[in-house]
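Cross-posted from the bioinformatics board.
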Amino acid sequence: MEHDAMNLKDPNSMNRILGIVLRSGVVLSGVVIAIGTALFIANHSLDDTSSYLAYNPSSIPHGSFPVSISSIASGLLSLDPFSIIALGFLVLLATPVVRVALSLFLFAAEKDRKFVYLTATVLAILLFSMLATPLIPLFNG
Amino acid sequence: MIVILFFLILLLASIAAGALGSIVGIGGGLIVIPILTLFLRVDIHYAIGASIVSIIATSSGAAATYVKDRITNLRIGMFLETATTTGAIIGAAIAAYLGATILEAIFGTILIISLVPLVRKIGEEYPPRQELKGIAKKLNLQGDYVERDGRKIEYNATNPGKGLAGMLVAGLISGLLGIGSGTFKVLSMDLAMKLPMKVSTTTSNFMIGVTAAASAGIYFARGDVNPLITAPVALGILIGASIGTRLLVKARNTAVRKIFALVLAGSALEMILRALGF
């Protein structure tokens, strides 16, 4: 940033952009989770944990915490602490994906065609696995 | 147990897991899972969900530092990641047909056997210079990093085929058992590909995050990622990883390998004990 402008075609500035994006993602996720935690602890610090920790997959959605994007969204509107924590988790989950996606640009900047293909393959497998497999019964035991 | 106490115990354990995990290239499930199941009596499904959270937090928390210091070899990581993610999908697909017990016994035994070659090179600071040839040359699997005292360390990867095979197994373990299998990744890079230890652990650190993210959707949709557990684990790991990364950049490769050998022994023991029903 000191001597050259942010240039998507320069590997050095791409590497720097990658670092900045990763750090921002991690800090944002940490802050969101910390806010949700503070809200939860403010009202429930002396609750017994057992009511929150019963595992009952047959009754999804559990009711005690959100397990889909839409339930997180509706929970956020009512400032539900568990929905805020889940949002922070989703931000954290996005950072490795963004990292792979930005690496694609990094290799393109280095004019490394083989690695552009390789990274595109990894990104495709990653997105398939993240988005498609939860919908396929084979993967859900 | 009351919420605040549960939270504090898990936060402290996660700080330790994040520091250790970011140094040796593993996800911290090794510490987080037994604390949750044995000590806090949490259901194993939530413990594995927490392990996924801890892997991604360790990987992303440490990444910013390792990208800046350029110890992670992104090329080697991305090359190997093709095998890991493929293995993880196959593993997740066949998990329903295989018992976890026998797998844990097998992998625990493999880890114990791999202690032998690891201990044999326990005092090795840098691997002997390898010739860059074959696939490794075609894909330019080499690199360098700068030690804190200013020395530039250059290295070439060797045996990329063995590395890929090791990563396919690592991916299978991840998919089957819901763990990061960072130990297996580090072993493949250290023993087969002969990279400097710090390059192996930081590159593993990059890879575990991608592999865990691939399976996170399944665990989240299934309801295994419980926010009461996610919050202290994610926060603790992020704090711990920022400590661990600072230690790693200054550490000697021999020191990192010694800590890794201890972690490997602990990990193997944990798997075998679990297989035996403890």
